[in-house]
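Q: Is it fine to ask for two folds in a single conversation?
A: Yes, each is treated on its own. Send the first.
Q: Here.
A: Result:
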Amino acid sequence: MTRKVEAWGKSGAAAERALVLAMTDRATMSGTDLSSSTRLAALGDYWLRTEVDASKRSTNTRQRYRYVVETFIVPGVGGLTVREATVAAMDRYLKRVTDETGAATAKLCKSVLSGMMALAVRHNAAPANPLRDVSRIESADNEVRALSFDEVRALREMLRVDQKAAAVDLPALVDVMLATGARIGEVLALRWDDVDLEAGTVAITGTVVRVKGEGLTRQDTTKGRKVRRLQLPKFAVSLLLDRSVNGVPGGPWNVLFPSATGGLREVTTVERQWRTFREKHSGWGWVSPHTFRKTVGTMIERDRGLADAATQLGHTSEKITQRHYVEVPDLAPDFREVLGRFAD
């Protein structure tokens, strides 16, 4: 199989240099020919081919890692050898990425570089993984904001009476997101085979992704890789029952929310349709489709606790739920009776 060698840079000249570097190193790299003199451009290519492409990682993850290697690592530090990839060198590079593109990108670069250098260590090309000792990449935590029950009711009513929103099926989409807490890509990937109306459940079995060279497709494995079956509230069961009788055909994918042509709907298309609706109604500028997932996490955490919220959202760690999906209330619980005892 022939694979194209690609590389990017901030300018045409930088991209050309990165491409030449990648092609040169790949030509000299074969088998397990790793040494302390191997350049990171070659190490990155070898890591992608042997560790990433051959793994069970999701298509999205494989594409993301390849993008990081080709867009950031090869142009940034691809010319360094494994020997030159010291803690200090990696630390300087990651701080530069943080300054130029943000902490999120820097963390991705750190993760990829750590995987690359771990491979070098396993091949005795490096004595230790320098990424273990670089400085912590700090990022400002965005405050989690969820909708209140009153806001949800108001928003659902606005969606119901908005003809353009109804024409693109936004009311039903939002209801299913609120009923499940699923990601928008997971909701768009729901098939009728995943729904059990008699039991009132739905299985989250996949997500919609765009794959380079293939286009829009349905990926059977979700982000957490574990199929989870969720129990639906009555309003969602009624909605899906009505759609099963009166809704549009699911097309070749047999999905609940097909596109206008009967195929899969793209996440970015729904996000654009949501922005169009949002711009017509003041006061909702902060609400995105992902807000509904945070709202579900917040409401379940308040009523049933953090563990149940994490289970509903499909998180492997409660810390993820707590940090990114649960709103911290402005008003503390009412402890006046307890604290009043100090003056008794």
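Q: Second one now.
A: Result:
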Amino acid sequence: MAVGGIACTWLVPDDYNLGQVLNVSLQFFEAQRSGKLPRISNTPWRGNSAVWDSVLLPNGRNYSLLGGWHDDGGMLKLTYPTAFTVSLLSWAYWEFKGGYASSDSLEFGANTIRWGADYLNTVAVTNITSASGGVGDIARDRAYWGAPERATIPRPASFLSQARPGSDAMAMAAAGLASAAVAIQGDSLQVAQKYLQKAQLLYTYAQRWRGLYAKFIDSGKLYPSVSMYDDLAYAAVWLYIGTGQQKYLSEAVAFYSRSVASEGHVSANPYQWNYENVVPALDLLLAQVTGEATYKANVEAFVNKWMNSQRDADSGDVFYTKKGLAKASPDGTLQHTANAAFYTLLAAKTVLKGNYMMYACWARNQIGYMLGDAGRSYVTGYGAVQPRKTPHKGASCPPADVTDCTWETAYYTTDPNFHTLRGGLVGGPDDDDAWVDDRDMNNPANAVSLLNSAGFSAAVAGLVANDVNMAKCQQGNGFIQTVLLKAKGLPDAAGARWWEGV
């Protein structure tokens, strides 16, 4: 019996320690912190930076905009992507809290959400009835290559107001705060109530002053937006979940209808769920809180599109690469795939009926691709073959007592980054599964960002919460079973579309 037990264990395929991966993914957000940092950190090479971020109020006082996250490998702090990131992390913590608990990351997860939400809480400047859209200057930020801790470049703050409306960005900030309140209310009701109050204020601003933020905020060049009613609906539905007030649900439904009618699916590809298109998220949330069949049908269509598309780049909105990555077309990145994996896990838990493991194993398959199933990891600081040259100023710069950090010593060098940046998901491979590890700051395939990592971290939390692993997904089939199946001409449990048989 003992021998048989050993053999069976050997036959089950090895898998990633997804609890460890969840912890690693959260370390990326720790590395992105701006402001005064805690002494205890998993990222000791990061220190205080941008401690003077502020705005001068009409009364002559400085209003601090301390904190938040750097958006990517640079030093810009941008409200819109930060808010969407907070909403995804909060949603994961709310629905998959057990994953954080079982991986000993409960406090880490909550603190990550609070770091982002605390910054969003400062965004609404009640003294001047406005909201900050971002801190930093794009041109100056791109011209400087050095550690954030040593940067002295000017960091102007940009604002949205009645004269400079930005319903999309302010509504997303409201959604981020409201979702954070929902996520952490069991841990700190007082903090959750503070977030809800500010979320309601930002939502009021967003409703009153209609317009798109990109017209007035320079960062709109980096994160353009063509819709606002989906963002307003996203804020309203999270406020409904957080407060239970029926008016927010009514407004969410109304804004959703207006978005679909006047903005369409606000994206060239309706199956890309990202900061610019939250209609898929609205379908999922409204299906949960209303139970209406229309929303549920849209959720099913979204999931089916991602799971059941063909292995052909010309086949439509979603296709599969030869190595099994589901990609959004055109120009899809791992961000969209990770978001779809998270979405599928949420849908399988809350809306879809049927074989949960079929959906969960598809998500596991896509996350596995990112972790190394296709021969390399696309997550910094994880895996034997991992990205080591991603354009990240903090990670590339040696300490000041080692050498100066310049374009020549830290950017143009062919050496790996001096520090190991952990948990950052890069943009990822092309349609042929090809990817080159270099420090090209103009190539999104190599970039790390809040938006890249948010859905990835959230999806991993969902997998950990439900203990989704390859042993379950392959139904115990390991190396020998796979060889025998192939010898008989039968489908390989680990081969293409194996999740359909779960």
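Q: Anything structural to flag on that second result?
A: Two points. The chain has one domain: 2-501. The longest strand covers residues 130-135.
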